[in-house]
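Exercise 7.
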Amino acid sequence: MNEQRKFRPKDFSSDQNVRWCPGCGDYAILAGVHRALAKQAIPPEQIAVVSGIGCSSRFPYYMSTYGFHTIHGRAPAFATGLKIAKPEMQVWVVTGDGDGLSIGGNHLIHVLRRNVDLNILMFNNRIYGLTKGQYSPTSEVGKTTKSTPMGSLDHPFKPLQVAAGADATFLARTLDVDAKVMQPVLAAAMAHKGTSFVEILQNCNIFNDGAWAAIAAKNIRADATLLLEHGAPMIFGADRDKGIRLVGLRPEVFVIGENGLTEADAWVHDAHDPEMTRTMILAQFESPKLPTPLGVIRSIERPRYDKGVHEQVNQAAVNGNKNLQEMLVGRRSWTV
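Solution. The predicted structure, written as tokens, is:
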């Protein structure tokens, strides 16, 4: 029945006034999610959006789906419970670099290692926006903010590196202003069975304007970013004249045609590589030394926690435990 229904982006938009600062990158992300959802055959009533606390966490209000605005950093826990209780639902987690990597860091790494069938969007603007501009776990060293007037001393997280360290089965990155990259990334995330983690580089024009200006501006984006495609060589640049090669395990930029190097010398991207070594190398790429990777970095299969829970419950029923009380008491119990 779902395949017969046609959806439009506005079918996923709520009647609430969108209350982000004018010019915020969140508007572009919201529009991108609306478009992506409209292209799949899942109706709004079979989708839920779960968030924590922060500017990004207002997302459920603007979705004509089920939504939960939960506790700071704990959205993955709520989403896990929801997915187990209602496995037929498509569940999204919307979080920020502060919500997801500081107080929520522990919850994030565990949902990734468990591989629950969730779609996680992390808006990374390198700042705490809702609380008016303090540095976040992704802020660069030396960042001057209200909470670090002499510059931040903290070494920042790279979100994809954290997720890779938790053995996440799906890793991707996109820009808030790049719909051409965002749409296929979101489609791939929705199709993935397991936890999909998408970092969205997002601009906070009030408290950290230009956070990603070094790669996001249209006139430099082609030279500052690397659009990944499974099975394709890593070629980039406005003239498609530069490539990435591996010298041992060290990535290196080269110019096609110089020193006898050709496109055939470029590293060929394998998003389905089960080993983590090369994924971790890509997760550490950082402009300007290396182009910032965009697109799907990793997409592999691994047993899912939510599916395993249901299999165990079904097996318990087969073994004779017909209800929750029987499963709690079991057959080997005694009265003292």
